[in-house]
Amino acid sequence: HAPISRSGRFVSGPSEAVARFTESVSFDRRLWAQDIQGSLAHAAMLHKVGLLTRAEYRDIRAGLEAIAGEIRSGHFVWKPELEDVHMNIEAELTRRIPAGAKLHTGRSRNDQVAVDLRLWVRDEIDGLLEDIRTLMRALVRLAGRSTEIWIPGYTHLQRAQPVSAAHHLLAYVEMLERDRSRFRDCRRRLNECPLGSGALAGSTLPLDRAFVARQLGFVDERGRPRVTRNSMDAVSDRDFVVEFCAHAALLAVHLSRLAEDLILWNSAEFGFIRIGDAFTTGSSLMPQKKNPDVAELVRGKAGRVIGNLTALLVLLKGLPLTYNRDLQEDKERLFDTADTVRACTRVLAQMLDEVEFQPDRCAAAVADPNLLATDLVDALVRRGVPFRQAHHLVGAAVARAEQLGCPLPQLPREEWKRIWPEFDPSLLEVFDLARAMERRTLPGSPGPGQVNRELKLWQRRLA
Ligand code: ARG
To answer: Where would I find the H helices in 80-164?
Structure first.
């Protein structure tokens, strides 16, 4: 039979091809719980303002709850010819209960889908915030196992200065905490109720918007209901979807950078870590291979999350107010983004528990004395040499050592003297790595004191 939106105005139903092209129930059925939640609140309000009798409201509520149970258990039959999740549920309700025909009073699918989506994103953010915390805990655990591990820190992928592995890992904890705060911010901003906006211009019926908002938890910190302030904005606004996908894209970029660090560290060339067998895969051809595919996929999936954000922005950029069917295209980008970042977040958290630093390989890499060339500059500065000059002198020593094929601390005394006549061998004490690390006491620096403080702080915050 013809979709309910066409009855009356149309003589025939849509062609088979049109129905197939326009349907969205194959993917927007994911909104079913939010759709029913919204309908229950709307029906309660219609009863409160006298547009539904007590009996009608009771029937509608019982009917929606029965349908919810059937959807949950997989027994509900979805009909593509009924277009979307909203009409599937309403049509089935009305088939069972005459009062179902009153449920859509003062409502349009335009404000209905807007409320469903806000509820869905809100729930999704709550779940994602927890998943991110779980990943942060895994990072902190690995950092806690690695406080004694020093590795080179890199700029330009060139060895730069020594850091602790824990310090490197805690950098990602900082990024993830910023991600969480962005999602929380998005949640706060989207938490307004669009119901009562109708198709675009509200309703002439005496709807109680604040009541619905309160029912659905669209309230501010002080519990006051929040309703959208412009009906035209409310039905065409997808900013919250864009914001969610933008924050997700940045999260995905952070996860991708972490994955890339793990991939590099896991290579034979670095050899800083080993990843447990359960999180690597073999090659169909080369029997010796153990590949970090999980990390590579996390890196790769950032691409589609960024693509989803771009798709949404392009989708919106030319749309005139208010609702346009184009907006139906938002859902798959949103769902795919949410599913992808949650899967990446979860799998990385599990993988990190299977990552171990290889102390010997790390020690060998960090033993490169050039990593402490900057410390030598600082030592000269302490003796009153202007920084620019000290930088130049040590640079000359590095070049000379390279020419002679010897490590910097072994550069012969006469060579040092030729570069800087005031040289004395006590300066070479800077090349003691453990003491060099102890000297890094500034807030935010990789010295053991600071790193242990940060570790304790995160352990407490994430407990
Ligand atoms: N399935 C539609 C969407 O996702 C719901 C709103 C439809 N409204 C309309 N007037 N056709 O956007």
So the answer is: 85-96, 109-145
Q: How confident is the model at residue 4 (pLDDT cuts 50, 70, 90)?
A: low
Catalytic residues: 156, 283
State the CB neighbour count (10 A cutoff) for residue 36. 19
Angle at CA of residue 89, ends 193 and 340, nearest 5°: 65
> Is 156 touching ligand 1 by the criterion CB < 6 Å?
no
pLDDT tens-digit series, residues 184-196? 999 999 999 999 9
Is the CATH number of domain 4-105 1.10.275.10? yes
Whether residue 88 has its Cβ less than 6 Å from ligand 1: no
Note the pTM of the prediction, 2 decimals.
0.95
- Cβ atoms 219, 272 nearer than 8 A: no
Task: Verify whether ligand 1 is closer than 6 Å to residue 238 (CB atom).
Answer: no
Ligand 1 pocket, residue 228 CB under 6 Å: no
Asked if 37 and 74 touch (Cβ cutoff 8 Å), the reply is no
d(CA 335, CA 186): 17
Q: How far apart are CA 174 and CA 454, in angstroms?
A: 10
What digits encode the pLDDT tens for the residues 236-295? 999 999 999 999 999 999 999 999 999 999 999 999 999 998 998 888 888 888 899 999
CATH architecture of 110-189+233-362: Up-down Bundle (1.20)
Q: What is the CA(173)–ligand 1 centre distance, in A?
A: 40
Distance CA 256, CA 355 (A): 17
Cβ atoms of 241 and 334 within 8 Å: the answer is yes
Beta-bridge partner residues of 356: 274
- How far away, in angstroms, is 16 Cα from ligand 1 center? 19
> Ligand 1 centre and the CA of 246: distance in Å?
23
Tell me, what amino acid is at 39?
S
**Domain segments of the chain as ranges:** 4-105, 110-189+233-362, 368-431
Q: Regarding the domain delimited by 368-431, which CATH topology (the fold level of the hierarchy) does it fall under?
A: Ribonucleotide Reductase Protein R1; domain 1 (1.10.40)
